[in-house]
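Section 5.1 Outputs to date
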Amino acid sequence: MVPTRKLGRQGLEVSALGLGCMGMSQSYGVPDDLESIATLHRAFELGIIFLDTAEAYGPFTNEALLGRALAGRRDRVILATKFGFHFDGTQTVGTDSRPEHIREVTEASLRRLDTDRIDLLYQHRVDPAVPIEDVVGAMADLVREGKVRFLGLSEAGEATIRRAHAVHPISALQSEYSLWERNLERDIIPVLRELGIGLVAFSPLGRGFLTGTAKRAEDYPEGDYRRGDPRFQGANFDANMRAASVVQQLAWRKTATPAQVALAWLLHKGNDIVPIPGTKRRHYLEENVGGASLALDGADVEELDRALPPEAVAGPRYNERMMAFIDR
C-alpha cells in the first residue's frame, strides 16, 4: 500500500503518489472510459487516494468521469480540481479568475464531480488581469462556506506565492517537476519550504523521456499534445533521448523500471513532494506504485543529479503560446 504524506502545514494528508487524470480525457490518445474507471478503482485498492483533475481536462468531461467513478467511494479519496481558464467551446482562449467566475465554475465542478466539497482547489494558471489577493479571497470564501477544504496554486511564481499565502494559507503548489524538468529547484522550492507549502509534481516521468517510451513529435496522432512539444522535435528529441538513458541504466541495476526510478528520485527529494503520474491503464498504475517502495541510496541520487542537470535537456518546456501562461 502507498503510504501517506502531508501537503502544507494545514493538515492536508494525501497518498505519497497521486494519480493525474488528465490523460483519461484528452491530450494523450483516445479516451477509454471503462479502462479509466477500472484504473481509478484499482488506485483506491493500492492506497492511491489523491486524484487530480480540472475543469480544463476535456474540457469538463474528466470531472464528470471522476464523478461517475467515485459513486459510493467519495469519502475514501482526496479530490483536487482546478479553475482559471476561459473557453470558447472546447478551446482554451485565455485565463479568467474574476471572483464571480471562480464561484460560478467551482459550483459547476461540484456538480460534475457529484460531490458537496472539493478537498484541494487550485487556480490553474495565474491570471495577470486579476490581483492574486482577489483570487485567493474568493477561494477563501469557498473554504468558509465548506465547499472547499484547502487551497492551491499551479505554475505560480515566487512573488505570487508569497502574496497569495498572505491572504489565506496555501497548502500546495502544483508544477512540473521531475528529474527531467528541474526549473523549481533554485527559487520556488526554497520559498515553498519557507512558507510550509507542499509541492505536487505533475509530469514526473518527463512526458515519456524518463521511461524511454517517448516518440518523435510526428509519430503521435493529430490532436496529441506531444506533436507540438519542442522537446519531441528534431534534434531536440535525439539529444533528450540520449540524456535520459541514464535512468534506464540505473533501473537495470536496481531490477526496477525507469518509471519507478524516476518516481523514487522525486520521493527522495523531500517528504513535502507528491508526484502525480498520469495514466489511464491499470498496468502502468501498478508499475508506478512500485516507485513508492524503491530504495535509492545517496550515490544513486547523486548519479542521477549529475547526469540530468537542468541544462542537459534540449528545448523549452512548452511552445510559445503555452509558456505565456507560466508565471515565471
